[in-house]
Amino acid sequence: MRAAQVKAFGGPEVLATVELPEPVAGPGEVLIEVAHADTIFVETQVRSGHFRAYFPVEPPYVPGGGVAGTVTAVGAGVDAEWVGRRVTSFVTGSYAERVTAPATAPTPVPDGVDLRTAAALVHDGVTAAGLLERTAVGRGDRVLILGASGGMGTLLIQLARARGARVVAAARGTRKTALVRELGADAVVDVSEPDWVERARQSLGRRPESTRAAGTGTEDATQAATGTATEAAADVVLDGVGGDLGLAAFPLTADGGRFSAHGAPTGGFAPVDATEAERRGVTLFGIGDVQFGEAEARRLASHVLAEAAAGRLRPVIGARFPLTEAAAAHAAIEGREALGKVVLDV
User: Rounded distance, CA 172 to CA 168, Å?
Assistant: First the structure.
């Protein structure tokens, strides 16, 4: 069986195509013939040797954690009806032609959703849907999305809009800002411009009076009672970038709002001052808030797959690479060359 293996910590070149023994479904497991493997930025960081405290892997190892494919065999104690089903699943070591997973892990892919689309939703779709639930994004909320042109950011735009939020999407450069505008963002700011923070504040604006009076949130109810005006700011900031960019966005969070520092492609999460957040009544969320148990992950996966089947959610796949070019896929991810997702075709 072919797989892509990290031979040593380092750059993309440490990924090599190897032949490994064929996996066999053990008791309580299914065997999946992989059609497409999901890729996410953190896999490149783990490969380079970063975050070893959080991801205690040692080379050689097969990277990746999500696939879309077809169940071809089941182990003892597993319903044979799984065989032949198209599924997505979280797995260990997805950059391979075949993988095993606990029979409780796969989520059936509905008719009308191709497996490449399904693969693009394995991680980013689950995380995006769960993040909006955790931060309680609702109708009338002003939401600022950093890293809006990435695999998850493009989904957040669509899902937040579906919840009735006003979305301001932050991305870098004309290609990426054009994409997020096409996906339905109410306003777009280019973070390569020096005044992007002020532009974002202007775009976020004040919450409409009708929404405030409806009492859709704690802040709204307080303002409705006191008659005070809503500041030009974000009710929710979704920071998928981290570092200085995420830190610069924190002051855009309205008092009593929510700030999620869940992304770190810059090398670290936004170093937000927790004391300042507490003083302003801002609720902080982090990467730990988007770690889901198996049952919850399957529920969220079913939701985003159903949205895709209904035509309400479109993952953006900006680049595809064969399994044998996993190194090139990682280089594209690190170079921010592709819009949206990078997917491995197995």
Answer: 13
144 has a pLDDT exceeding 90: yes
Q: Which residues pair with 297 in a beta bridge?
A: none
Q: Is the pLDDT score of 135 beyond 80?
A: yes
96's enclosing H/E stretch is none
pLDDT tens-place string over residues 198-225: 999 999 998 765 554 333 444 444 443 3
Measured distance CA(92)–CA(61) in Å, rounded: 10
What's at 43, amino acid-wise?
E
Phi, psi at 296, each rounded to 5°? -70, -40
What does the DSSP assignment read for 184-222? T-SEEEETTSTTHHHHHHHHH-PPPHHHHHHT-SHHHHH
Alpha helix positions (H), the chain: 41-47, 115-121, 124-134, 151-162, 174-182, 196-204, 209-214, 218-226, 243-249, 274-280, 294-309, 326-334
3-state secondary structure 252-296: HEEEEEEEEECCCCCCCCCCCCHHHHHHHCCEEEEHHHHCCCHHH
Kindly report the pTM of this predicted structure. Answer: 0.91
**Residue 233: what residue type?**
A
* Cβ(200)–Cβ(168) below 8 Å: yes
For residue 235, is pLDDT > 50?
yes
β-pairing verdict for 107-108 and 142-146: unpaired
